[in-house]
Design goal:
The protein is of the alpha/beta class. The protein has eleven helices and five strands. The radius of gyration is 21 Å and the shape is globular.
Length: 296
Amino acid sequence: MGVGTGWRARAACGVVAAVALGAAGCTAGGDSPGSGGSGARRPSASPTPAWDTRPGSVAAVGDSITRGFDACTILSDCPDVSWATGSSARVDSLAVRLLGGAGATAHSWNYAVTGARMADLAGQVSRAAAHRPELVAVMAGANDACRASTSAMTPVADFRAQFTEAMRTLRARLPKAQVYVASIPDLKRLWSEGRTNALGKQVWKLGICPSMLGDADALDAAATQRRNTVADRVDAYNDVLREVCEKDVRCRTDGGAVNAYRFGTDQLSHWDWFHPSVDGQARLAEIAYRAVTRRS
């Protein structure tokens, strides 16, 4: 998210030929077994590489959440507290959990940009690919819903095409990299929590996610419909993220954990009461680490 706006998959195919024949998305080499008892052995399928729970480097792409926007200072990035690559001990970022403090400093990179939308992801991926990261952490899409109006939100078909293109770009440059894709947070819950704070609502007026946060205290039918429209679009975007990721053997999602996480006031920026606070960034790091280190 930003001012002015804004998942190797777990599929594994058995090497035993009888299993490989029935496993979706797998092919077995060699000729079909003969019925005449020729004694020829059929080669087994090549096993799908297992997900590496300890990648040696991390690159992050996405939007303002991954830049730690408004976590330290009003209307400013604070990458030191980024859930993905930050160095702050208060967050214990994904990179630090995986690589250790020194390892994260030397082998993690943050190419997220505050205000970025899904259309910007392919470019970020291209820049991150120069470092040959073993894991690419993605959190993007909130700004596609956080627009001036619901009619300005990115159409779902365009969002799918843009994320697909970003994944193609990534695969062309990083054929063996793993990808972790975080779901988009529940923007409506963020509105519900933040609207209790007078300062936050004043900051919202500067242009933070107007499609959801505009007229924050309005509870009439039109305002309710507007917010529900944004929430539905976020759900559709999250479906796209999951579906596209599932097609890539080295991609896995958080299973919707970020979207389901119930951010409270302690997890929200005390500047804008919408972006994650330092504590909120730590919760995102926990979710990401659980997903990346999950063995099944």
